[in-house]
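Journal club side-thread
Mid-discussion, someone asked how the predicted structure for our own chain would compare to the paper's figures. Pasting it here so we can look after the session.
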Amino acid sequence: MTTMTALLAIPLIALIAIMWVFRFLMRSWVSAQVSRWIEGALYALLGTLITYTWGLFTGFPWDIEEACKLDHQQHWDRSSAGSASYFPLSNKCNAAFDLVPGYINPLVIAGVSVMVFCSGMAAYQALKRRNRVVR
């Protein structure tokens, strides 16, 4: 197991364990429908964090010049070297080549969208259940 894989695996296992404990505790606090939507939002958050972290590890090497020249056989342009951004993730070797894979940013946006949708549905289900109980 490489060092980078170990660094990613330990927090991932801890997050999954915390989510399972939270899942069983949450079932006693809220209804099953609401807990499913909350669980979906948490899994979307976990997937988004993993995707974003993967984009950081692949797109932001220690030595950008070496990564551009040796790993990707791209010309390294000093003028675009300071154009790194963290949202959307981008780290350019030159005007035409980005070190961050093209699928990272759409997956992060999709994960955030799913998380917001699941959170909204959980709130809707909770309000719907509360209004039904009050009547």
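Post-session note: The longest strand covers residues 85-86.
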